[in-house]
Amino acid sequence: MTWLIVVISVVFAVSALLTLWRIITGPSILDRAVASDVLLTLVICALGAEMAINHHTRTLPVLLIVAAVGVFGSISIARFVARKDNVDR
């Protein structure tokens, strides 16, 4: 069981590092927005895995807040890009 936890942790860590790299070097704002959504999804998955491993639900409110921040952030970025696109035309 402990080797599985180590493998899961390594996979999440490598994925988070690659996602951070895309956020830093993304050529456009949309690439950075998608990468931040992926990073928030990784955080949600990591917290969910931690809840399943330790058999508790104490971090469920944190999961809901992180999900809400991701949704509202994606909506605001989409509106910003759409407004900027209309100005350019």
Automatic annotation (TrEMBL):
Which InterPro entries does this entry report, sorted A to Z?
MrpF/PhaF-like
Question: Which stretches are transmembrane?
Answer: 6-24, 33-53, 59-82
Its subcellular locations are: Cell membrane
Keywords associated with the record:
Cell membrane, Membrane, Transmembrane, Transmembrane helix, Transport
Question: What's the protein name?
Answer: Monovalent cation/H+ antiporter complex subunit F
Cited Pfam families: MrpF_PhaF (PF04066)
Q: Which family does the entry's similarity section mention?
A: Belongs to the CPA3 antiporters (TC 2.A.63) subunit F family.
> Which PANTHER family does the record match to this protein?
NA(+)/H(+) ANTIPORTER SUBUNIT F1, NA(+)_H(+) ANTIPORTER SUBUNIT F
Provide the organism lineage as a comma list. Bacteria, Bacillati, Actinomycetota, Actinomycetes, Micrococcales
Name the domain of life.
Answer: Bacteria
Q: How does it sit in the membrane?
A: Multi-pass membrane protein
